[in-house]
Write a structure and sequence with these properties.
The chain is an alpha/beta fold. It has 6 helices and 5 strands.
């Protein structure tokens, strides 16, 4: 929208069974352009890394936030995703006039008007930029966590419920980073906690 300071926001890690949910909020200059900018899921890791640097250097404002698994278990993943987007918006150094959100659910952020867009990360540059920041920061977090818990393959699956990840839960139990309210295995009570 011309003349309006608009923030795009998106989350990463909603479908994972381990690790925090991350979100980013980004305000781009009016004529921001990068031909490679797209929904983070449609980009390679190398493309995401290049774009992360480009976004951080050229955005008017950007911020990344996360919410831990304990809070996700307490308030549920939808509420945690929205809370995390709010946290990212809180951290912006510029207050937006309008917010655009990837997906179909959001809660009012103060008195700032917002609009939800399904598949918005493929249609709006600021949402795509937010999706890239959220995804790359979350991936970095899970790679670091994989150093402490190497048996779960988080440097490859990033906490998503792959066969490898579920087999590791069955073999080794759960960690403090696992989301206990999620279906980790068909019968999670059978598995010990790996502290």
């Amino acid at each position: 929208m011309a003349g309006v300071t608009e923030a795009g926001t998106d989350e990463a890690g909603r479908g994972c069974i381990a690790g925090p949910v991350f979100a980013a909020a980004v305000i781009l200059p009016e004529h921001f352009e990068d031909p490679g900018l797209n929904d983070s899921k449609k980009l390679t890791a190398k493309e995401r890394e290049r774009l992360r640097t480009f976004i951080q250097e050229n955005a008017l404002a950007w911020a990344v936030a996360h919410t831990d698994p304990e809070e996700i278990d307490r308030i549920n993943i939808l509420n945690a995703s929205i809370l995390t987007m709010h946290k990212a918006l809180d951290a912006l150094k510029i207050k937006p006039d309008h917010i655009i959100v990837d997906g179909n659910r959001f809660k009012s952020y103060g008195d700032i008007p917002f609009r939800c867009h399904i598949k918005g990360d493929g249609r709006y540059a600021s949402i795509a930029a937010a999706s890239i920041l959220a995804k790359t920061y979350r991936d970095d977090y899970m790679k670091k966590a994989a150093e402490k818990y190497p048996q779960y393959g988080w440097d490859r699956n990033f906490g998503y419920p792959t066969g490898e990840h579920r087999r590791a839960v069955a073999t080794y139990g759960i960690t403090p980073l696992h989301r206990k309210s999620f279906r980790l295995l068909p019968d999670p009570e059978l598995f010990p906690s790996a502290e």
